[in-house]
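Hi F.,

I've been meaning to write this up properly since the lab meeting, where we talked about keeping a consistent format for the predictions we share between groups. The idea is simple: the sequence comes first, exactly as it goes in, then the structure tokens exactly as they come out, then a line or two of notes. No screenshots and no reformatting. I'm using this chain as the first example so we have something concrete to point to.
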Amino acid sequence: MALESFKAQISMLLEEMVNQPEDQHEIQEQLREKLREMRAMGLPLPDDLVTLEKRLDDDFYAAGM
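Output, unedited:
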């Protein structure tokens, strides 16, 4: 899957997080999966998404999940 395709999918997930906050946890998991796929393929991860992923992880663990 090309980098542009990943970017489009991630963009859609971020929009869903804003528009459907009740589904935020599920969407966060989908976002993490996309980033894992990008890493596995050796694709570059944008710094802002790496920062977002860290914040999501920090929030997840701070909530005691």
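Notes:
The CA atoms of residues 2 and 43 lie 9 Å apart.
Residues 3-62 form one domain.

If this format works for you, I'll send the rest the same way.

G.
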